[in-house]
Fold this protein.
Amino acid sequence: MENNQDIVKVEESTIDHYTSDASSDWSNNKYAGHKGSGSFFTAYFNVVCVVAGTGTLGLPKALAIGGWLGLLILGLAWGMAIYGGIVLIRCLYYKPGQRLHDYKMVATHALGWPGYLVTAALHILNCFGCPILYLVLAGQNMNEMLAHTNGALSAATWTIIFGCILIVPMVSLKTMKEITIVSALGALCTGIAVFVVAIQAPMDAKANPDPVKYAHDAVIWTGFPSALSTIAFSYGGINTYPHVEHAMAKPWQWNYAVAAGLSTCSILYFLTSVPGYWAYGASTQSPIYASLPEGTGKLVAMIVMTIHVVVAVPIYTTTFSMETQEWLGTDRRFGKFGAWVARSAIRIVIMIIIVVLAVEIPYFGDFMSLIGALTNCGLVFLLPVLCYLRLTGIRNKPFYELAWCCLILLLGVVGMVFGTIDAIKALIADFQAGQ
């Protein structure tokens, strides 16, 4: 009997079946111990804010290095990211009446200590790497926008200033539920930036045609791994999903929330990548607004994306700090005030580390490719599928779902291995050129 309980097979064989029966699981006590109070929109805006943003900025460049084939990969990644987000949360409840706490616990139950170590390493790199990338971009934007004014400061100085400002919401906001308004603001900013690029880029291309400089390619095989890693980065944030789902009052709505959130992000991605690459071709830069002509459009895009990346930082840092607090048991061991002091200390230390690293790694595009290849290919594509098959079984899956899983694993391995190699080579070249 104990062995049967240890290896639990889910009754559902497909995602669709799971979705349709999810509400009945609530009354069947599947979500025992769930105490969230957030709404569907709490989860939706958190997903949009943490996933969209810098991915929107980098995807036109991904097409420039991979060709129009990148659109097919983007479409596949869209479906794969939704699938991974759904099955990861299903893994949290693979034992009836129990809920695993986070991504690392899922990997531990599925793959043992090796799984825990790999997932923890990728998770830490992601939780620190993405905020570092965001602060790098915010600092560079402020430096460029105020370069010829009395408020001109270096990019590193602006990075430090933003780090100090972000300590306030990090300390005052306890869980993912409290940052819903911040997430909604970030999503709005992304929408504005997409609107600017979608209109400004084609106008610029029409006014300044250059068939040679702005040439296009159907596919560039040598750039495919790097393009795939950038696309993987665009669907990152999956390690925050367990905490976002836990904040929901009705967790059975998670499937709809993650599908709606990632679909919104994908629409924004297509609206940016297609006109961006069509307008600037092989000369497309990352972030895309660097390719826009000087003027109001570029300035607006830089302002709203600076706001977005800044408000997205607390989502990652809150996720990591909540897990650190759970590991240290601060909420259980100390009183209300003591827990607040411990939480504040943990989050301040996290922000200090992020700011220091952001100052030392000022290369946006190539660093984004490295994070996408090394962490997101593993966290978004590989591990959710491996854990899901391990925890719920293989033989109870239809052949088309298994084929889909194999495709996800194949793209994940290609992007992780070859994308990481390309990104490291590019970063080495960046540091050597900067010396």
About this structure: Residues 1-28 have pLDDT under 50 and may be disordered. Residues 33-429 form a domain with the Amino acid/polyamine transporter I fold (CATH 1.20.1740.10). Residues 103-145 form the longest helix (43 residues).
